[in-house]
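Why does residue order matter? Because the sequence determines the fold. Keep that principle in mind as you read this record.
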Amino acid sequence: MNDDCERLPRERLEALQLKRLRATVGRLLEHVAPARERLHGAGVSAAHELRSLDDLRRLPVCAKADLREHYPLGLLAVPHERLVRVHASSGTGGKPTIVAYTRHDLDVWKTVMARGMAMAGVRAGMVVHNAYGYGLFTGGLGFRPQTRNGD
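Structure:
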């Protein structure tokens, strides 16, 4: 991952975003049958068909109901062996919703959270009070410090 991507000129940033969007759509088409069906329904049968970021408008989204419908891990795009963390809700809306993460997912999350905190003015050596509630499903956990084993 390019840690300096927020400094890229607009056209290079958009090219990187389109490349990553195509990679994501390609994984969904190849590995996630429910997503493949929805993408086909939206007229997308191959990742290279996405010509610009404007094509985001025609892509289907995943809602919380989809996570429940394909409970527990029916929307995974990777083998179970690649999972390093799984978060689950209490299931107050029926079935619990489960979200699974690979090591790469956690690395991306860590980078995104660090960027967000830096934009808010947090700098090395500062003490930051994490007031996020852990009841926000996975939201508050992103601010949690890393443990010794890296997750």
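Strands lie at 83-88, 98-102.
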